[in-house]
Amino acid sequence: MLGGISDVLLISHGPIGCAYYAGISGCEGPGLGVGANAKEGADATAASVEVPAFAARTFVTCMDESDIVFGGEEKLANAIDEAVARYHPEAIAVCATCPVGIIGDDIEQVARDAAIRHGIDVLALSCEGFKREPGWLIGGRRIFEEWVGRETRPRGPYPIHYMSESARFGNGVASSLLEQVGYDVVCSLMGATTYEDIRASQDARLIVLDSGKAIDAVPQMYGERYGTGFMRVSFTGLGNIARSLRAMARSFGSEELDLKTEQVISASMERIAPALERARERYARRIAVIFEDIFRSDAFATMALELGMDVIMIAPDYAAQHYTDQGFCMNVPVALAGRIACSGFPSGERRASLPGCEHALRPVSARDADWVRATFSSREVTDALSILNPDICFAGVEQRFGRIRTPMRSEKFLSDERGTDYGGFEGFMSFARDLAIASELGHWLDTEPSWLTEGRQDG
């Protein structure tokens, strides 16, 4: 929630080890993020923004044993003073870690005193890991209560608040697409935004949330206080992009916006049409297996479907709250289900689409779109994949399957990449390019896995 605010310095109050995750999800900093050397795909506005020197760094008070015994409030106060002296941030946020909550440091008072000394906002967040509420909700609520609504700015006719972690790392693909349609993106909480943008974010008439995370509570706060509209969107996958843009236009009730939306969609599809046709010829009827993780891999399934691939999705039973060898849901295209039906695998129910992929823009030449959904054990999943022999596997965050005694091309496409690398129309073509690199490099043929070599030697 806080990591992408480029001009707010974030301090973790606690031991050094507790600060690890504070540095892996924020702004990438000068030369890497939304600075002069922003990565390809960032819009011109983002590229012209100067990122503070502290944007890529992790700050921690580094509490030790004596601080745990005698308290770390003085160390926190000194850390805030040093941060202001060195970096002159627009504001500071202090995140309490578990030891701080246990020993009872009064970070609220320390923050109030520091705000008076330096004349800037210092936000104290009691987001210890053992709290019943998740840290993103605590942070989102405090930001909303303390910063939102402090000022207002002149806006265009269609002001929106684009909430998405995919807007980080100098990625301006979605924002650029929205601006082409005619939207005024006033803020991008969770993504690359600023302290001043947040203070005026109540000016948005609509919040669009492009994220697989269940953080609806924050947009709902805007709706309750300011009457801001709210909808979930996805700018990953051609069908998702078109559906999202059209739904946004309908919410404003403007014929001009409807017309501009259709023009942008048509022009974008026409621009990528030749490359899309070549990609679909390459991937038609290839088999892709997607091991669905808890953060949802439906974006990758959607893009694979739109390339004409036969997609198999496998996921553990999340309702069980823990991994077991039973209860893996396997979605197999009807056209492929016959291969494993005669091998004693469980029968399942027929479904018209994959979960989360209802709006995929599949090619006309694609095979029957129905899937069979059944519950498999871990061993049955392994045996079924050996029979189906997929062309490529998309690995999730965690897998609990045994070894499949067949070389299978595999790539670990992370959930966060779906928006940062593969968002928008051009991002979809980047996915097709990366998929070609992953599946067709010669090392798949030249390098044999050690277990296969050892098996030949043993037998």
UniProtKB/TrEMBL annotation:
Q: Tell me its family.
A: Belongs to the NifD/NifK/NifE/NifN family.
Gene designation: nifD
Q: Which organism is it from?
A: Slackia exigua (strain ATCC 700122 / DSM 15923 / CIP 105133 / JCM 11022 / KCTC 5966 / S-7)
Per the record, the domain of life is Bacteria
Residues forming the Nitrogenase/oxidoreductase component domain are: 2-436
One Pfam family for this entry, by name?
Oxidored_nitro
The record ties this protein, via Gene3D superfamilies, to: Nitrogenase MoFe cofactor biosynthesis protein NifE, C-terminal (3.40.50.12380), Nitrogenase molybdenum iron protein domain (3.40.50.1980)
InterPro entries registered for this protein in UniProt: Nase/OxRdtase_comp1, Nase_comp1_CS, NifE-like
Identification of the protein by name: Nitrogenase molybdenum-iron protein alpha chain
Which keywords appear in this protein's UniProt record, sorted alphabetically? Answer: Nitrogen fixation, Oxidoreductase
